[in-house]
Amino acid sequence: MNRNVVNILGYGVDTFTFEDAIEYIYNRHGQVVTINPEMILNAQKNKDFSDVINSSEMIVPDGVGVQIGLKILGHKVSRIAGIDFSKALIQKCVNDNKNIALVGAKPEILQKTCEKLKSEYPNINIVYAHDGYFTDENEIINEIVPLAPDLILVALGAPKQEFFISKLKKQLPNSIMIGVGGSFDVWSGVINRAPEIYQKLGLEWLYRTVKEPKRLKRIFPTLPLFILKVMKERLVPNVNR
Ligand code: UDP
Which of 156, 162, 186 has most ligand 1 atoms within 8 Å of CB, for mutation? Predict the structure, then answer.
């Protein structure tokens, strides 16, 4: 299976279906970036972040913003929610008796996440779990490397999780690593995920914003600015890079 990427503001987004994306990364290994408009705009101002995204093994369109942006550019892709994608990877690893590591979130959230995962998947093999409030990332990396987990889920928020993974990847090329943002908060049961109807309509961001109004600052002006840049890109390709 080969990658087929479509470009948006300088980033090549994979067009795999959900199932093919799982199959591809499961065999290929490496870093999965679940990209959203906020990350794209940040990366345009941060060369290191941009390089990390572009050297990842797979970039999936998380959220409706990137999907709309790609539609404006004439590409129809189905969105892949990072939280669902990570869950499917966990399921596959459990089926194949592979090892899993979790890094990130607050200590009590991480603990609850591990408990929930263990009750959902009694055979899960969690070989490492560390909260996301550490001072020396090298210490964590040095603890993970000898364990060589097959799947490493990193919940530090973007771009911290992508930088962390990119560093870890140099020593663990045969692992699958994915930045999962606030997924542990949801899996622990501490934060409720948007009801399915919001997910289906691509309105999870609306639900999250109503629940956590401080997120509004992240959406505005990010989303309108992103759409504006995409429209400019359609008129004059490469104008935003
Ligand atoms: N986080 C962390 N260490 C940090 C900063 C953030 O572990 O230094 C965690 C935070 O507790 C939360 C996650 O990273 O669980 C980020 O969640 P957010 O909702 O911001 O991510 P998003 O899904 O919006 O990218």
Answer: 156
